[in-house]
Amino acid sequence: MTPDERSADDVEGRRWLAESGIDAWVGRWLEAATVLVVLTALVAGGVTIGWRPARTVTFAGWIGFAVAVVVIVAGVTIERTARGGASEPLTIASWITLARGAILACFVGVLGSIATAPGSGVEMLMGGGVATGTAPLGWLPAALFAAAGLLDGVDGTVARRASTETDLGARLDTELDALTTLVGTVAVVALGAASIAVLAVGAARYLYAGSLWWRRRQGRPVRDLPSSRVRAGVSAAVLLGIWLALAPITTAEQSVLLTTAVAVPFLANFLWDWLVVTTRVSR
To answer: I want to staple 275 with a disulfide (CB 3.0 to 4.6 A). Which of 31, 245, 247, 280 is the partner?
Structure first.
């Protein structure tokens, strides 16, 4: 192949990338991954300074695993948005959403370290939730989870006030909401602070989306999801219930009752939404 032929192939390849939009969403994905890694390093650095058990390979390994999951979720979200014809930039609000992913990754790292480091300083109830003691470090998992949850209200507010609301930002926010709920439910169940049935709360959003994907693939009708004031309320209640189960102020028995109490209306609302969008009931 001559230099001219190779040059022509390079030009054609670049043209194909531009026309297909692959270069655009890959660039967004790399940007999101870079922001996420930097933010995770900052949060993890703060945890490491104040919590000695974080200075281990275990802590870094769990964080690496969690960051990889968030990067994949972000990449899939960006690709689907681009496939829909929207080539939207990452805004400051999107960076705040990614900060939630960074904090969530550190939350996973802390819990993974606790599970393998009995001398961590965070007392654990045998078969129950996080400690009954009042040691400040006992609040670390709850504090990280609370930060990830509270930033959920910040990113949307920033986007609206700065007039930078985008479809990409909204989708990233939704996916981080679902991931936060999934990680939180797995954490409290693993700690014995919730019934195993509560895992259905974390899986609900993914089962819901999967069932709608299958219906569309089969050519069956799917409605748009109507707005609802109840939906936000039950979601907030679940996050609050998980936080209380993680905080060193509840016993294992109290945590199990609490997480069950918030799971029931959450799952009932998800079931109702599914019945509506699958045309099984009227709006």
So the answer is: 280
Q: Which residue has the tokens 């959920």?
A: 152
User: What span, in angstroms and rounded, lies between the C-alpha atoms of 71 and 49?
Assistant: 25
List Cβ neighbours of 42 (8 Å cut-off, separation of 6 or more): 102
* pLDDT, tens only, 209-245: 999 999 999 999 999 888 888 998 999 999 999 999 9
Angle, helices 22-50 vs 3-20, to 10°: value is 70
- pLDDT at 121 exceeding the cut of 90: no
* Residue found under tokens 């709850």: 142
Among 120-124, 176-180, 250-254, the minimum mean pLDDT is found in 120-124
pTM across the whole model: 0.85
Residues 53, 63 contacting (CB under 8 angstroms): no
Question: Facing residues of 124 across strands?
Answer: 130
CA–CA–CA angle 58, 61, 67 (5° rounding):
140
Q: Catalogue the long-range contacts made by 131-140 (C-beta closer than 8 Å, 24 or more residues apart).
A: 131/248, 132/248, 132/251, 133/248, 134/248, 135/248, 137/51, 138/248, 139/247, 139/248, 140/47, 140/51, 140/110
